[in-house]
């Protein structure tokens, strides 16, 4: 008998959280398209596109670890609510700046604020989400979480491109993002707060190190995070999509929306298929193979001059990425003790979440030196090389079987 595809959604708290994140993700995906198009239209500079990622990466790098320690000491739901409210305020400010045609540098300032809200909100939201999921539903809940994210990432970019083409600017998208973040805030507020385990109190610096120590001493978790981090860092081509849409494929803002949507459409298709599949029997091998596929599809996208081939290649990057994301999220939830979830989530956010922004910066800088085509194709080649190194460095990843066999380590002492 196939597994119950809707098992986790039958839990009201999980269902609300998934729907709330759907609204947040839709607004965020639209915002990413609008900011990229707006900045490139204003400046015509690939370096300026790279700076979009950098200004969002720096707050995450500096604040995620302290935020993770704070999450494990305090009410995770309240922290998630506060960060979401701050995100909504910054999103609204961005819309106001668009209405008054403020200088480009003001966009970067607001993006620093959004990055700061993300640095605090990501570990809090992740830890809170894990608290409301029974362990036997981790895989199903993560698949639905990924499915709704990819649904938003499919429709959001296409909708953003259409709105920009119709209105002639990004302001309407900025304002919609503010509304979407507020919707997530109100949904999050309705979810009952489960009890937070009493943390082990100690010096703050020791608590910050605890999350890092756990990641670096847990070989499977370190391998999965490292693999995904470098794949996103080298293989991410999203920062250069405005360049491809305007200067290489010549498809304009509407085409940009479809280019941004294609990876999410592939991931959405894979998510829906995964909901009806039994658990991975050899999860480690699946992770390695799909990241190789991600790198190969990135190379094809970088070299093609056909819009149709570009969309198919990006679609495949989403298919492969979805498998690796679900395996990594489930692995983390299964091996991390409850008392460390905030700090490990913060480490995860630094290595994975911020690698998206750092990857955008790397892509922009590389494109300004060697051109956008070789910046993207070279990134795909580097991704495949990283898989080879990871497979050799962490043999336990190659041998990893069913994820359900994993559990947190027994407490020492």
Low-confidence stretches: none
Element-by-element helix/strand order: HHHHHHHHHHHHHHH
Rg from Cα: 20 Å
* Molecular shape: globular
Topology:
Layout lengths: L11 H32 L2 H28 L2 H24 L4 H28 L6 H30 L3 H19 L14 H14 L1 H17 L5 H8 L3 H23 L8 H21 L3 H29 L5 H30 L1 H22 L1 H5 L14
Helix pairs in contact: 1-2, 1-5, 1-6, 2-4, 2-7, 2-13, 3-4, 3-6, 4-13, 5-10, 5-12, 7-13, 8-11, 8-12, 8-13, 8-14, 9-10, 10-12, 11-12, 11-14, 13-14
Features:
413 residues, mainly alpha, Growth Hormone, Chain: A, 15 helices
Write structural notes for this entry.
With about 425 residues, the protein is mainly alpha-helical. The chain has a single domain, classed as Growth Hormone, Chain: A, CATH 1.20.1250. It contains 15 helices and no strands. The longest helix is centred in the N-terminal third of the chain and has 32 residues, at about 10-45. The model has no long low-confidence stretch (mean pLDDT about 80).
């Amino acid at each position: 008998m196939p597994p119950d595809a809707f098992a986790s959604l039958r839990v009201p708290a999980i269902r609300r959280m998934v729907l709330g994140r759907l609204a947040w993700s839709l607004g965020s995906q639209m915002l990413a398209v609008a900011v990229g198009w707006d900045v490139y239209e204003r400046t015509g500079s690939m370096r300026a596109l790279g700076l979009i990622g950098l200004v969002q990466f720096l707050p995450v790098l500096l604040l995620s670890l302290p935020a993770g320690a704070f999450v494990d000491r305090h009410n995770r739901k309240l922290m998630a609510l506060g960060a979401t409210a701050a995100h909504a305020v910054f999103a609204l400010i961005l819309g106001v700046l668009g209405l008054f045609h403020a200088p480009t540098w003001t966009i970067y300032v607001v993006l620093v604020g959004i990055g700061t809200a993300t640095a605090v909100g990501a570990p809090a939201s992740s830890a809170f989400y894990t608290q409301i999921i029974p362990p036997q539903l981790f895989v199903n809940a993560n698949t639905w979480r990924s499915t709704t994210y990819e649904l938003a990432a499919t429709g959001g970019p296409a909708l953003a491109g259409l709105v920009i083409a119709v209105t002639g600017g990004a302001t309407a998208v900025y304002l919609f993002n503010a509304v979407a973040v507020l919707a997530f805030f109100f949904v999050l507020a309705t979810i009952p707060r489960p009890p937070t385990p009493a943390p082990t109190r100690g010096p703050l610096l020791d608590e910050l190190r605890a999350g890092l120590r756990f990641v670096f001493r847990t070989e499977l978790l370190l391998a999965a995070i490292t693999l995904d981090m470098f794949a996103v860092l080298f293989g991410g081509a999203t920062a250069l999509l405005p360049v491809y849409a305007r200067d290489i494929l010549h498809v304009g803002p509407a085409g940009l929306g479809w280019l941004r949507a294609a990876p999410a459409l592939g991931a959405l298709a894979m998510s829906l298929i995964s909901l009806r599949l039994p658990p991975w029997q050899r999860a480690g091998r699946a992770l390695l193979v799909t990241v190789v596929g991600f790198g190969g599809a990135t190379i094809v996208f970088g070299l093609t001059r056909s819009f149709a081939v570009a969309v198919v290649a990006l679609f495949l990057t989403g298919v492969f990425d979805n498998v690796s994301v679900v395996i990594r999220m489930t692995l983390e939830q299964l091996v991390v003790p409850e008392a460390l979830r905030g700090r490990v989530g913060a480490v995860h956010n630094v290595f994975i979440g911020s690698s998206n922004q750092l990857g955008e910066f790397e892509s922009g800088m590389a494109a300004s030196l060697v051109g956008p085509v070789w910046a993207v194709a070279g990134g795909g080649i580097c991704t495949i090389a990283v898989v080879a190194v990871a497979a050799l460095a962490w043999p336990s990843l190659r041998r990893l079987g069913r994820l359900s066999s994993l559990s947190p380590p027994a407490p020492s002492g």
